[in-house]
Each structure stands twice: as C-alpha cells, then as structure tokens.
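Internal tracking record. Fields below are filled automatically when a chain is submitted to the structure queue. Please do not edit lines marked as system-generated. If the sequence contains nonstandard residues, flag them in the REMARKS field before resubmitting.
Queue: standard
Priority: normal
Entity type: single polypeptide chain
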Amino acid sequence: MRHASPVESIALPHGYPGPLRERGTAMAASTDAPIAIPALGLTLWVRLSPDTFGGAASVIETLHAPGFGPPLHRHAETEVFRVLQGRYLMRLDDRCFEITEGDVVTVPGGTPHAFVNLSDRPSRQLVLITPGMHADVFFRELSALMADGPPARTALDAFGRQWGVEFLGPPLQLDDVANVA
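SYSTEM-GENERATED OUTPUT FOLLOWS
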C-alpha cells in the first residue's frame, strides 16, 4: 500500500494573500503585539481567533529563529502548516522530512509532531488549527511559563494537561537532519 506524501506544494498566484477579507472589507489581523517565547525561538501572531469561525478553527502566523522549533508533542486538534518563508525539518510520528516555502503539511489530531527551522534566517508559517483553540491564551501562558527558560518537565506537563497537549520529548535539533532518509 502506497502512502500519500504529507507535503503538498500550492502556488499562490500573488504570494501571501495579506490581510484577510470578509464581505469586501479588510478584516483586522491581530492588532495586539506579537507573542514571544524566546526559549522556543518563537514569535507568533493570532491572525484569526476561533470566534471568527464559530469555534471550528483558528489561524496563527509563526516566526521561528534558526535552529528552533517546538518540543515533540501531540494534541487532539488537527493542524495545517503552510511554509511562507524558509525551510524546516518536520517530524510526524517516526517520519522526518524537509519542507520549504509553499509546502503544506497536514498533521492529523493525535499525531506526535515537531519541527525545527533549518534556515540561517527566521522562517515563517501560517497554521490553521481545527477545531479552533484560543491560541492567544495558550501561547501567552506558555510564554509566562518559559519566561526564565525551559521549565521543569513536571511544570510543562502540568501546563499541557490543562490544554490537552502531551509533551513527548525535546525539540528537534539541527543534527537530526543527518538522520533523515
């Protein structure tokens, strides 16, 4: 049985679409300051809250510093990642593969996953999360937890349980690229 590739490249005719529009008017992206989590090399913006979609989805934009990404984790929500800039090593279950600008990867809910920015500059992704989650609250609380650096594993696990996130291991490292088949 042949498995479909988890990576799909879709060209947008005019690049990143910019501000989202609804009924002909510009819909404000997030006017709040970005959320920064230096311990994860992450800056993110909540572009659309779950309230926009009646709880069905939320959208965030992420910026990862070179060599950074989240710890290996899983949660019930499905995530769809579109790489806007840069290059990542992505892990889904036990498979690792590279993704780059224009690639789209769907991570079904419950799938262990992690990624790391392989670029020598910040890399960006647009992430659709379904069903929606209040990413603004989640990431602000995670930022507070990590304000002094990575927390003790017990503190991270306790935080994750409140959100239905299970942390399974450390972030991917640049050395993991050598292990990609």
